[in-house]
Design goal:
With 226 residues, the protein is of the alpha/beta class. 27% of the residues lie in helices and 30% in strands.
Length: 226
């Protein structure tokens, strides 16, 4: 059921055009841990608008991508003039593309959280096979959402139980999975012989254009292939 729901949801967004910029947190995390970009093979899984791939291309990377939506693949190839053979149209809840390239970096932003638990394990398996030794591997997902109980003071930055409560305010038809910490820890431990766990950081964003009452906490997990 999850597979069908995820596919249908994103297919309906085939032609959406969002004004997106590259993730400052993503590139800061990679830079401080010594990631290199020039002449490196980089794979973005679930690249969406392609804003992070565009930034990688500016830094001299050989870019590759996996995306469910064909129109997004056409768009990124047109924007970057990249090799069309470096891009794969794929639903990761069904299969993983047969990729021969070995990568220096694989990352995914807001993609891992649309996979079933069994496919999350397969995701690690597939990425491990196509990563070079000492290559970086990063996953990003929204860890939780908080709703402010009282929004009278727009400058209030305190986050505690008396001010915020756990909530869910993505659109109801969005089949996103909020991954439980115990599930992530299990994945880390299961893959510790293949991946060295390097860093776990988070950033926050508000999704309302009018106020900061709705807060999303995003988690970044960075690994290195052993």
């Amino acid at each position: 059921m999850l597979v069908k729901t995820v596919t249908q949801y994103w297919k309906k967004l085939e032609n959406e055009n969002l004004d997106m910029c590259a993730s400052f947190t993503l590139f800061r995390l990679l830079n401080i841990n010594g990631a290199k970009f020039k002449n490196k093979n980089i794979l973005d899984i679930g690249f969406g608008e392609g804003q992070n791939l565009i930034e990688c291309k500016k830094r001299g990377s050989i870019i590759h991508g996996i995306e469910l939506r064909k129109e997004k693949i056409k768009k990124i190839i047109q924007l970057t003039k990249a090799n069309k053979n470096n891009f794969f149209q794929c639903d990761l809840n069904i299969s993983f593309p047969n990729i021969k390239t070995k990568f220096d970096l694989i990352y995914s932003m807001d993609t891992f959280n649309y996979l079933s638990e069994s496919n999350q394990n397969k995701y690690f398996d597939h990425c491990s096979k196509i990563l070079k030794k000492n290559a970086f591997f990063l996953i990003h997902y929204p860890q939780m959402q908080l709703l402010k109980n009282n929004n009278k003071d727009i400058f209030d930055y305190s986050i505690n139980d008396s001010i915020y409560k756990n909530d869910y305010f993505f659109e109801k038809k969005n089949p996103i999975i909020f991954l439980k910490n115990i599930q992530i820890i299990k994945l880390i431990n299961k893959n510790k012989n293949r991946f060295k766990f390097v860093s776990s950081i988070f950033d926050t964003n508000t999704i309302s254009k009018n106020n900061s009452s709705k807060l999303t906490i995003n988690r970044y997990l960075l690994f290195k292939k052993k």
